[in-house]
Specification:
678 residues; mainly alpha; 3-stranded antiparallel beta sheet; 6 strands; Chloride channel protein; ClC-type_chloride_channel; transmembrane helix; CBS domain
């Protein structure tokens, strides 16, 4: 036994745990916290809604002696004790293994990552069970599940006052954080697209609170955007602490975003597809395992907190005849046009409230503080809620009513139009929230109305209006995000009906293609980042500097590095050609050992790297940086110039940021504040 233990310890000390093998585990941990965030967010919305509907009902509930109901809610809650039985020993075992592994060299990084992931798992377990208890409490005293029945009984003054005060509170909360405006998804897309992969965690928490206030007080917005932003913010923080590379950070951000969608809709496949299609924009084998594990973990946690009941009632529908495909193609055209109108109206309302529209009212509003503008938007949403109750909150309660065909034709038409207008006003005026749920409601109302007409004229060859409501829901989501796979898989998973997949494929494809064409055709021709990188030569951004000779000693080399602006210098070889690069980080291993100073020169510490041509484009330079996993590359001497150069990733980012700032000042933005552009 002694020899066996000794051999086991020796084997553990030889353990190597590189980044790619940790990434799936990190993705699963991020998924756990995204699911927890979805549960916290849903309960925050329920809390704000309960406060909106009045604390008097809470006292009335207690007077009716419903403590027995509360005990039944606790007893029926999904506690899932197996999570603690499995997760706690694994985490404690990882902590023990981190202590057993002998320190030194790359093993230090292994120990640090194991310890952090184990502690995060234990933290998730410690949050899960109190959150389940809170959900059980909220199911008895909250108002988050029967809004369609309770809204008609709200007093008129509360329907006006609650969204107004909610808008004022959100405006006050976000007035000093303009970067948190929008609905969350474009900010994550921009972070991944730029390569920065930085979404601050404090902004994620702030966005969750602000969106809970907006939705709970009656503002027309969805809950998925803040969850996507919050999950990506947590993933960004964890990935940077773990020391992941830029590519791994991008995958981890997609894990957080996909797990947020999975937890919000109880649809793990749709969340994984969303992460790959919308956030990461790639379907490679290396991204599958972390994203899928994150979606599964987020869904498991949200099912325990929010319940396992599907968001949509499982209603059996089927394709009545082959000719019905033509009707679904027409529905796809309608959903594409609706999504295009939604995007344009969102931008128009934003510009109006920001004072960028001609006239007298818009400039006057632009001078008002954000709380005033957001409160005015909430008041407008409250007024529209008098006409259609679907305007209140996310409005997803009415999707089930449309799916079973219980809503009349004129109600569906009015709800579609007013939900579109109210969401644009709520978010465009300064409110916080997502657009997935409102788009789903708009699509369901439009599809139900379209299906009612089609079934009225062709009753024998078409299905009921509920089938068109479900397909319209997927078509609107696909068109708004220009993601047909996300719309298809989301509705296929939520409906649980295999027969609906053919109509979904037709409608989602046509809707997303049409919306993409209309936006690209109408949008100003702004060069993309890829166009800018391919058309800009390296010598336009390179920094000219004298290279370091190969035989320069360590002491003067350190002085040059510490005083250089980039913290990196090109190094020559013995023949006078550029050999590679030396950075400040490479001095850390020898800095504390002064006995090594006389023995080392610049060529000993330099890393051999590909040398860029001054005429090469920036896209080629960034590809080389990604291949070598560095932030700078040396540049060869241009003709007639004695000095060499250095190109850094920071310089490229500054260049792109300057271009975006110029375009924004001229009124054209590559990624809008309220949409995801492809």
């Amino acid at each position: 036994m002694s020899r066996f233990v000794h051999a086991t310890l020796q084997a553990s000390n030889r353990l190597r745990l590189p980044g790619p093998s940790v990434l799936p585990v990190a993705g699963a941990v991020v998924g756990l916290y995204s699911g927890l965030a979805a549960g916290i967010f849903a309960n925050l919305i329920g809390l704000v809604t309960g406060l909106t509907f009045g604390a008097a009902e809470l006292a009335h509930t207690l007077r009716r002696s419903q403590l027995l109901t509360l005990m039944e809610a606790f007893a029926s809650a999904k506690w899932h004790l197996e999570y603690a039985i499995i997760g706690a020993p694994l985490s404690l075992g990882a902590l023990l293994l981190a202590r057993v592994i002998e320190p030194g060299g790359p093993r230090d990084e292994v120990k640090r990552r194991l310890r952090l992931l184990a502690l995060l798992t234990l933290g998730a377990l410690s949050l899960y069970y109190p959150l389940v208890a809170l959900a059980a409490l909220n199911s008895v005293f909250g108002h988050s599940h029967a809004l369609s029945e309770e809204i008609p009984y709200l007093p008129w003054w509360l329907m006006l006052l609650a969204p107004t005060l909610g808008g004022v509170a959100v405006g006050r909360l976000l007035r000093d954080r303009p970067e948190t405006h929008g609905h969350g998804v474009p900010e994550v897309v921009r972070a991944v697209k730029s390569g920065a992969n930085v979404v601050p965690a404090d902004r994620g928490l702030l966005k969750l609170v602000a969106s809970a206030i907006t939705i709970g007080s009656g503002g027309s917005a969805g809950r998925e955007g803040p969850i996507v932003y919050g999950g990506a913010a947590f993933a960004s923080t964890v990935g940077r602490v773990l020391g992941f590379s830029r590519k791994e950070l991008s995958i981890l951000l997609a894990c957080g975003a996909g797990a947020g969608i999975s937890a919000s809709f109880n649809a793990p496949i749709a969340g994984a597809v969303f992460a790959m299609e919308i956030i990461l924009r790639e379907f490679e084998l290396r991204v599958f395992s972390p994203i899928i594990l994150a979606s599964v973990a987020g869904t498991l946690v949200s099912q325990g907190v929010l319940g396992e009941a599907p968001m949509l009632r499982r209603v059996p529908y089927e394709l009545v005849s082959g000719s019905e495909v033509l009707a679904y193609a027409g529905l796809g055209i309608g959903c594409g046009l609706l999504a295009f109108l939604f995007v344009k109206l969102l931008h128009g309302v934003e510009h109006f409230f920001q004072g960028r529209t001609r006239g007298t009212l818009s400039p006057w509003l632009g001078q008002k503080p954000l709380p005033f503008r957001a409160g005015l938007g909430g008041l407008c949403a409250g007024l529209l809620a008098f006409v259609s109750p679907t305007v209140w909150g996310s409005g997803h309660d009415y999707i089930n009513l449309a799916a079973v065909g219980k809503l009349p034709f004129f109600f569906l038409v009015i709800a579609c139009v007013l939900k579109l207008v109210a969401t644009a006003i709520t978010i465009g005026s300064g409110g916080s929230g997502g657009t997935f749920f409102p788009a789903a409601v708009i699509g369901a109302m439009a599809g139900g109305a379209f299906g009612t007409l089609v079934h009225y004229f062709f009753p024998a060859s078409t299905g009921p209006s509920g089938a068109y409501a479900l397909v319209g829901m997927g078509g609107a989501v696909a068109a708004l995000n220009r993601g047909p796979l996300t719309g298809m898989m989301m509705m296929y998973e939520l409906s649980g009906n295999h027969d609906i997949i053919l109509p979904l494929m037709v409608t989602c494809t046509i809707a997303s293609a049409l919306c993409h064409y209309l936006i690209e055709r109408k949008a100003p021709k702004v060069p993309s980042d890829a166009d800018l990188l391919e058309s800009t030569p390296v010598h336009a951004l390179m920094e000219h500097m004298a290279p370091v000779p190969a035989g320069l000693p360590v002491r003067p080399l350190a002085d040059l590095l510490l005083t250089s602006e980039t913290g990196a210098l090109p190094v020559l070889d013995t023949s006078g050609e550029v050999y590679g690069l030396i950075q400040v980080q490479q001095l850390r291993e020898v800095w504390s050992d002064e006995a090594m100073y006389p023995l080392l020169v610049a060529s000993d510490l330099a890393r051999k790297l590909p040398v860029l041509s001054p005429d090469a484009d920036l896209a080629h330079a960034l590809r080389l940086m990604d291949q070598e996993d560095v932030d700078a590359l040396p540049v060869a001497a241009a003709s007639g110039i004695a000095t060499r150069g250095l190109l850094t990733r920071v310089a490229v980012r500054r260049f792109l940021f300057a271009q975006h700032a110029t375009e924004h000042s001229q009124g054209s933005t590559p990624v809008g504040a309220t949409e995801v552009t492809r």
